Amino acid sequence: MADKMTTKIRLLVLFNLFNYAMPSASTPATIGPADADTKEELHVLAQHKIDSLTILMLLGLLMLTILTIWLFKHKRLRFLHESGLSLIYGMIVGAVIKYTASNKCDSSPYVRLNGTAYYTAPNPPAAVYLKLPQSFNSSNLKEIKYDLWGEVSEDTIHCTGSLVRAVHAFSTKVTFDPEFFFNVLLPFIIFEAGYSMKRRHFFKNLGAIMAYAFIGTTISCVVVGGIMYGLTRFMKDIVKEFTLNDCFWFGAIISATDPVTILSIFSDLRADVDLFAFIFGESVLNDAVAIVLSSSVDSYRLKSNQEGFNANAFFLSIGNFAKIFLGAFGIGSALGCVNALISKFTKIRDFPLLETALLFLMSYMSFQACEAAELTGIVGILFCGITQAHYTYNNLSEESKHRTKQLFELMNFLAENFVFLYIGVSIFTFQYQYWHAGFIFASVFSIIVARFCNIYPLSLLLNIGRKNKIKTSFMHMMMFSGLRGAIAYALSIRNTATTAKKLMVSSTMFIVLITVILCGGLTTPMLQWLQIRVGVDEDVEMKNIKESRERDTEQIEQTPPKKKYDKAWLVSLWHNFDIKFMKPLLTNSTPNLMETLHPCCMPLSRLLTTEEQMTNPCVHIEADSDTDMIIDHRELSIGESISTVSHGATQDTDKHDITEDSLIDDNILGDLGHGQPMRLQINVPGPLGENV
Amino acid sequence: MADKMTTKIRLLVLFNLFNYAMPSASTPATIGPADADTKEELHVLAQHKIDSLTILMLLGLLMLTILTIWLFKHKRLRFLHESGLSLIYGMIVGAVIKYTASNKCDSSPYVRLNGTAYYTAPNPPAAVYLKLPQSFNSSNLKEIKYDLWGEVSEDTIHCTGSLVRAVHAFSTKVTFDPEFFFNVLLPFIIFEAGYSMKRRHFFKNLGAIMAYAFIGTTISCVVVGGIMYGLTRFMKDIVKEFTLNDCFWFGAIISATDPVTILSIFSDLRADVDLFAFIFGESVLNDAVAIVLSSSVDSYRLKSNQEGFNANAFFLSIGNFAKIFLGAFGIGSALGCVNALISKFTKIRDFPLLETALLFLMSYMSFQACEAAELTGIVGILFCGITQAHYTYNNLSEESKHRTKQLFELMNFLAENFVFLYIGVSIFTFQYQYWHAGFIFASVFSIIVARFCNIYPLSLLLNIGRKNKIKTSFMHMMMFSGLRGAIAYALSIRNTATTAKKLMVSSTMFIVLITVILCGGLTTPMLQWLQIRVGVDEDVEMKNIKESRERDTEQIEQTPPKKKYDKAWLVSLWHNFDIKFMKPLLTNSTPNLMETLHPCCMPLSRLLTTEEQMTNPCVHIEADSDTDMIIDHRELSIGESISTVSHGATQDTDKHDITEDSLIDDNILGDLGHGQPMRLQINVPGPLGENV
C-alpha cells in the first residue's frame, strides 16, 4: 500500500530559489544573543494588535447593532429584523476591508520556495518541516514545523507599508471561522432553544414536527440534490465538477433552515402558538438533521468511492444517521440527568454560583462530548437543554433559576447577532468562493421547489391523522419561513476543497443573504396578509382551552372514551414513566419514588429519595419547570386525567394499563390537557426578557 | 539597510531530501477529482475531534473542581483553596498527558525538508511558501503559505498509531495559550474586580494602595532584577544567557501578585476591611503595573539595544509607562462614561437584555481598545469597571442590575478556575521550559527579599502620614499575601525566545505553584496566628463608625476644624466635581445639572437633564450604586458634611471653596464619613454570591 502510494505520488518538488525577507521596520542594527528574540517578539506584538483590532471592530459592530435594534424596537419598526441588520452592517464593513486591502501583502519574515515543481498530489501537504541549525555556530539541527495556512493570491509577493500589511492580515482574520462557530456560538444558540422551549406546544405537535424535520428535510435534500444534478448537466463550464454526491451534499447543507429571525418576530408579535411550535420545532431539529445528513453523504462518498451506487454503503449511511442521532440524544439526555442527580443529592444549591456554573459546564460538555464521540453536538446539547429544563431546573435554588435563564438568554442574544455580523463581514473577506450566476439561479430555484415538496404534501398527509388540522395559511407561512442562516453557511464553508464546494459557498451566501433580509423583513406583512392571529395571550389562550376542556370532559363523562391505540401511545407511555420514575428520581418533586415504585423496591427507593421529598410533600410544586415553562403535567397524560375524571378517584398504583383507555391525538391533547385550571397562571417572579 | 541584511543573513538553506508522507488510515485506492478533498477533510475532521477532546477534558476538570469546591465549602474545609485545587487537578492531567504522549508523532500529510542547512538567522522564518502546480496536469503554479508552528523534538519522525498521534496533538493543544488568557479570561477577572469593588474602602485607602502598587512594584522589580543579576553571575552554566535587561524583565513579570486566592478567603472569612482593601487594591493595580513595567523594559531594550545605559531610552521608558497608564485609564473611563450617557439618554432600559448586552460589550471593548492602541487593556477595563459601577449602574433597570452582577460574577468564577486548571495542565505540557535548580532557588530568594523591601519600608513610611496606622500584623499579612498567579505566568510564557526566557518560565511556574498552594492554604492559619479580626460585619462596623462620627462631630462643633491642605485634597476636589457635574451629567441622580451648574450654563444644563431627573427628585437615590456597593456619598466629601453639620443648613451653590475647610485624612475619612446613618443598611434584594 505504502509503496503504491510512493509511486503514484511522484514527489519531485524542486526548489531552486530562496529568499528570506525581514520586516523592514524596527530591525536592530546588530544581531547578538540578547536580540535574538526581537523579531519574534515584534511578530507576536503585531499579531496581538491585529487580534485586538479584529475583536474591536466586531465589538463595535455588535454595539451598533444593539443600539439600532433598540431604536427599531423603540420606534416599533419591523421592516428589517436584527439578524438582517447585523448581516448588512457586517457586509458594509467586509466590503470596506476587502476593497481597502486589494494590494495584499504580508511581510513577516518568511522563506519563499519558488521553482518548477512536479508535485502531483491533488492537495498541498498539510505541513512542511525545515531543518535549521540550533544556533549561530552549532552543527546540531533543530526541526521546525510549518502548518498549512492556505493559498495566497498572485499579488501577495512584493509590497511594503505597515498599514496595508495590517489590513491584509486583518482581512484574513475576520473571515468566518467555522470551528469557532460550531464550537462556541452554535452551542449557546441551540442550548437556549432547548432550555427556554415552550415544551407544551412542542410536545403537543411532536408528531408533526418530527415529520417536517426528519421526512421533510430528507425530501428537501433529495429534491435539491436531484434538481441541482439535473440543472448542472446543462452548465457546460462547471458540469464536470459536480458529482451526484456533491449535489446531494449541497441539498443536505442548504436544507438547514434558520430559527433565529422568524422566531423572534413571532415571539415579539405573539403569533399563533401552534404555528410557532411548528416552525420552531422544525428549524431546531432540522439543523441537526441537515448536519447529520451532510456527514452521512460524506461518509457514503468515502465508502462507495466512485464505484457507482453501492447498496452496502447506502445502508451504512442510513445506519450511521440513526447512530449519530440516537447517540447524541442519549449523551445529551444522560448528561442532563447526571446534572439533575448532582443537584438533587448534593446541597450545591446553597451556593447558587457553583450551581449555575455546573449547569453551564455540564450543558456545554454535552455538546463537546458528542463532538468528541463523532456524533452531532447540536442534537446532544438540544436534548441536554430540554432535560435540564425538565428536571434539573426544578432542583435549582430560586437564584440559580433566574441566573441560568438570564445568562443563557444573554449568551444566545450575543451569539446570534455575532453570527450574522460575522457572516456579513466574511461574505466579502472569505477567499474560497467562485461566483456562477447559473448555479446560483439553479440553487434558488431548487430550494423553492424543495421547500414546496416538503411543506405541502407533508402537511396534507399529516392533516389526515390530525383533528386539529394544519390550516392552509399555516402551510403558506411555513413555506415562507424557510430562511437559511448560520448553520447552512457554516456547513458550506467548512469544506472548500474543490471547485464544486467553492461554488456552493457562494450560492449559500447568496441564499442566506436573500432569505434573511427579504423573508425576514417581509414576515410581518406576510402574517397580516395570511390573516394569522397575532397578539395571542398565553393566559387567555389557556383559559379558553380550560373552558373547552371542561366542556369536553363533561361530554366524556357522559360517553366514556373508546379504547384506542393511536400514534401518541408512545408519548403517553413515556409520560407515565416520567411522572412515576424519572421525576421522582431526578428531582425533589412529589410523589417520591417510595410512593410510585413497587414496595419490593423499597430499600432502593428509600435511598433515592431525599429528605426534602419525604418531609415536605408540596415542595417545588409551584416552581416546577413545567409550570414555569407553560407546560402542564397532565398535558400528555390525558388517559390519566380523563380516567380520574370519568371513573372518579383512582389510586396511584396499577396504572400500567393507562394507555389503553387513553384517547390521545393532537387535537385532544391540545384541548383537554389541563387538569388543574389555575396552575398555568403561576409565573416565576421577574420578567424573562422579550427574546424567548 | 536591506543589502546589509542580505549579507549578514547568509541564506543557504539547501534541501536535498524530500519525502511526502500520507496518513496511513482511510486512504482511498484511486485518486480522481471527486476525491481530491478527502485527505484535507480527514485532516479537518481529526483536528475538530482533537479540539473537542481538549475542551471536553478541560470542562470535565472544571466540573470536578466545582464539585470539590462545593464539598470543601460544605464541610467547611479551608486547608486548600479552589485555585490551589484547580492547579493540582490540572497538574495531574498534564502529567498523564505528558507521560502517555512520550512517543510523539504526527502523521498528517507533510513535506519534510531535510538536509544540511547554512541558515544563520537566529530564528526560523515566520512563514514558508511553496509553489505547486494548480492541478494534475496544469502548468499554472499556486502558492501555498505555511505558518510557523514551532520546533518539534527529535522523536517526532517515525511512528504510527492513531491514539499516539491524537495524544500528541492533544498535548500540544492543552498548552496554555497566553493570547487566549489575555484576550478572553483576564478581562473578565479584572472587570469583575472593578465592577464589584468595595469602592468605599478602596478610595479611603487610595493613597496607600497607590504607593504599594506603583512604588512597591517598582521596588520589587528593581530588587528582584538586581538580586537575580548578582546571583546569576555565580551560575557558570547560564551566566552568559542573562543580561541585566533580562533580569529586570524577570523582576517586572514576577512582581505581579495575584488577587484571586487570598481575596476569596478574606471574603469568605470576612476579614478586616482595611487589610482587604490594601491587598485587593495592591494586587489589582500591580498586575497592570507589572505588565506596563515589563513592556517598558522591553521597549527600553529595543531602544537602547546593547549600547549600555542610555539615558534617553531610560526616560523614554518612564514616559512610556506614564503614557500607557494614563492612556488606558482615559480610554477605560471614557468608554464607561459613554455607556452611562447612552443608558441615561436612551430608553434602552426598557429592554434589559439589550442594556446588559451593551454594558457587556462596551466593557470588553474598553479592553480591546486599549490593546489595539498598544496601551494596557487591564488598566482600561479595570477603570471601565469602576466607572460602569459608579455611573452606568445607576441608570440600569432593576433587572439589568441583577443580571450584570450575576453575569460578571459567574464569568469571573469560571475564568479564574479555568486559569488555574490551565496553568496546572500546561506545567507539564508546555514545551519551552528549562529547569535549573540554582536559578529557581535564586528567584524564590529574590522575591522574598523584594516583597520585604516593598511592604515594610513603604508601610512605615506611610504610617508617618496616616492617623489610622497600618498595624504590624497587617504588614506581616501583606508580606505573606504576595502570591503569584496567572498574570505572572501568562507574562512569562508570552515570550520564550531565548534560553533566559525559558529559564524564567520554569521558575515562574515553580513560584506560582508554591505560593498558590502553600500560601493559599496557609492563609487561614496565618490570619489566626496574626490575630487579625475575622467575621467583620459591615453593618455593625458602620454603626460603630457612625457613633464615633457623631462623637467626633460633637467635638468638631465645639472646636471648628483648622483649615489644612492635606494629601487628600485632590480626592476631595474630584469628589466635589463628581457630585456636582459627573453624577448629574451621567446618571439620573439628583440634584440635576440645572441645580448644580452656574445659571449661565442653563441652556446646556437643560439639554443634559432628563425628564426623569426633573420630575422625580428622589429617583434612584435608594438604588444608587454607591449605597449598593457599600460606599457612601459623603465618604469623601467630609468637608461638605462637616460644614453641613457645623454651620447648619447650607445651600448647594458656591461650595467651590469646600476643600479649604475640609479635614481629611485616612483616619477621619474612615470615621466621619457617614452623613446618613441608615443608608448603608439598604441591601439590594437577592444574595450576591459568596465569591465577591
Keywords, separated by commas or semicolons:
homodimer; mainly alpha; two-stranded antiparallel ribbon; 26 helices; 6 strands; 5% strand; globular
Describe the protein.
The structure is a homodimer of 692-residue chains. Helices cover 63% and strands 5% of the residues of chain A. Chain A has helices at residues 2-8, 38-74, 82-100, 162-173, 178-195, 199-204, 206-232, 244-254, 260-269, 273-304, 311-345, 352-372, 377-395, 398-429, 437-465, 472-480, 486-494, 499-529, 538-558, 569-586, 593-596, 602-607, 611-615, 625-628, 638-646, 666-672; strands at residues 11-13, 17-21, 110-114, 117-119, 127-133, 141-152. In chain A, strands 1-4 form a two-stranded antiparallel ribbon. In chain A, strands 2-3 form a two-stranded antiparallel sheet. In chain A, strands 5-6 form a two-stranded antiparallel sheet. The radius of gyration of chain A is 29 Å and the shape is globular. Residues 1-37, 102-110, 114-122, 153-171, 559-567 and 619-692 of chain A have low confidence and may be disordered. At the A-B interface, α1, β2, α2, β3 and β4 of A face α1, β2, α2, β3 and β4 of B.
